[in-house]
Write a structure and sequence with these properties.
single chain; alpha+beta; Thiol Ester Dehydrase, Chain A; 6 strands; elongated
């Protein structure tokens, strides 16, 4: 970047080199993702990709006569879209280089999601504990997928194995 670059561009460059470590995510840290609508194309594409042609997802007449009264999006489709929304957050982008792996992902399907519903995630750090290796820690996130009616449709806990800050101090660097 040139020396005469606008201050905002210098800030972007600094941000692109930033990292969030295990030490930087205390219990209670909470953030939301952007929103996205679940479309007909999503449901058809997911059914084609997975081979899951359950009639509640793909048969309008069958679904109309069900307890739901309309077609449902696949639960795993909604969970997958949720993962995509999570990766769009700045927090996720800043842990991509410090997360070692996802160790566990537990899902609970609480309410149906319908074609046309718009979802977003609320993500909260609910547990952070060191590991036997001093350079790593475990972070557990609660990811709540929430629709436009403010109903939680899926709740998951996701456990990340993360690197700890090499210098032992908090804050991004």
């Amino acid at each position: 970047m040139s020396a005469g670059a606008a201050p905002a561009l210098r800030d972007i460059e600094a941000l692109s080199n930033a990292r969030l470590y295990w030490d930087d995510l205390p219990v209670g840290t909470c953030f939301d993702t952007p929103a996205r609508s679940i479309t007909e194309a999503d449901v058809v594409g997911f059914a084609s990709l997975t081979g899951d042609f359950n009639r509640l997802h793909v048969d309008c007449e069958f679904a109309r006569n069900s307890v739901f009264g309309q077609r449902l999006a696949h639960g795993m489709l909604v969970a997958s879209v949720g993962i995509g929304l999570a990766t769009r957050t700045l927090v996720h982008q800043l842990i991509e280089n410090t997360a070692v792996s996802v160790v566990e992902n537990r899902l609970q399907f609480l309410k149906p999601t319908f074609i046309g519903d718009t979802i977003h995630l609320r993500i909260e750090v609910i547990e952070a504990r060191p590991t036997r290796k001093p350079e790593r820690g475990m972070t557990i996130f609660r990811r709540s997928i929430i629709n436009q009616r403010n109903e939680t449709v899926i709740e998951s806990t996701v456990t990340y194995l993360m690197n700890r800050r090499p210098d032992g101090h908090g804050g991004t660097a």
